[in-house]
Amino acid sequence: MTTPLAGIIVLDFGQIYQGPYATMLMAKAGADVIKIEPPGGEPLRRRVIATGGDTTLPIAMLNANKRAVTLNLKSASGKNLLKQMVARADVLLENFAPGTLDGLGVGYDVLQQVNPKLVYATGTGFGISGPDRDNLAMDFTIQAASGIMSVTGDPDGPPMKAGPTLVDFMGGIHLYAAVVSALLQRVTTGQGQLVEVAMQETVYSTLASSYDYHLRTGKVPPRAGNRQAGLASAPYNAFQTRDGWVAIHVVTEAHWQNLLRAMGRDDLLDDPRFSTNPARTENMAATEALVTAWTLGLGKMEVAAVAKRYKIPAAPVRNAIEVMNDPHMHERGMLQRIDHPSLGPIIVPNSPLRLHGADRVDPLPSASLGQHNLDVYGDWLGLGADGVRQLEHEGAI
Predict the structure, then answer these.
(1) Closest CA to 14 of 213, 172, 185, 206
(2) Nearest Cα residue to 248 out of 318, 299, 313, 154
(3) I need a labelling partner for 396 at 20 to 30 A (CA). Which of 44, 275, 330, 332 fits?
(4) What angle do CA 23, 25, 30 make, to 5 degrees?
């Protein structure tokens, strides 16, 4: 197969969402990703095992196309085993708290001596330096610290988090970019390097409009609900329909004129209350009432279809089930239906990174805990079945 990362071997200590998403992208780009977990499993898997289960859809989504092994880094033989793997690997990725592997005696400084070409990637909440380095970090707390929550929610309500685990996945995307950048530099230098990504830093730029608002006004950026704060567009909101909601964002005057025609309100094309965006913003309540009177008479998919025909930026507010069954993403191969050995028929995502001319990697179900111990330790490292049994006896795996 012709894939971007063919031949690259990745040692994946990723856990929960951030690290596993980065390495899933690598696996989907053709890398040989070996997911390494402690004998009891990574935290996300331990939660499932504790309730008598085997896996969940997030585990299946983020760990597809990876081999899975167990490794006890608290044992001397486990540390030695890691060094043997590092000697053959291209990338090691982890998203532990800063200094975790250093504390176990197998941090970057040690492993770089084993393999100077190793790209060692670490994802943390606040970075591996600075006064906030050791602050505990979860997606929720980073959303608070980064300012995301301060601009999310209704104007008269409390700060709100974004619904999805936004920061973890932004961190994973940047980890992937950091690793690929370091691999590209290695082509010219012949040397690996330490690369790091702080989740807080990955989402800073998402508040660009809020920083601009402060620069222009000197005020604290407000929460605006589904409206647009700062340089407001109108209409810009979620509007109720007969069976749900639809998001409409008018950007240009042509969009507004098209919306009036779609609503059958050509009579308002020259109405001074609505003829310009500043006028519509000043008359926001009347503008939104006008749109709502139209959307309430239609279903959300009907509004979306009319908006598409009239070239108006709009989309139905869909739930997770609707998105999982999106015909567009299924036709493009972004979403695929597979039979998972533990979960049965499920829908899993492909990589959103598309390199035309490169092959796409067929989806393989996520592995069970330690499923490839014999494959990796016995065959790849050449220790054989007896060697694997000895590792088990020593508590190394």
Answers:
(1) 172
(2) 313
(3) 44
(4) 95
Domain locations in the chain? 9-202+326-394, 236-240+245-316
Q: Characterize 118-127 residue by residue with b for buried, 16 or more Cβ atoms within 10 angstroms of its Cβ, and e for exposed.
A: bbbbbbbbbb
| Contact (CB, 8 A) for 81 and 396 | yes
CA-based torsion, 387, 391, 393, 397: positive or negative = negative
Which fold does the domain 9-202+326-394 belong to in CATH? Answer: Rossmann fold (3.40.50)
Count the alpha carbons within 13 Å of 283 in the hemisphere toward its beta carbon.
14
- Rounded Cα distance between 162 and 153, Å, is 9
Identity at 394, one-letter amino acid code: E
Q: Which CATH number is 236-240+245-316's, of 3.90.226.10, 3.30.1540.10, 3.30.70.100, 3.40.50.280?
A: 3.30.1540.10
**Which ranges of 93-242 does DSSP label H, i.e. alpha helix?**
100-103, 108-114, 139-145, 166-189, 199-202, 208-217
Catalytic residues: 168
Q: What is the pLDDT of residues 206-253, one digit of tens each?
A: 999 999 999 999 999 999 999 987 767 899 999 999 999 999 999 999
| Burial (CB count <10 Å: 0-12, 13-18, 19+), residue 56 | middle
- Mean pLDDT value across the chain: 96
Sequence length of the chain is 397
Query: Considering the entire predicted model, what is its pTM?
Result: 0.94
| Cα 99 to chain centroid, rounded | 24
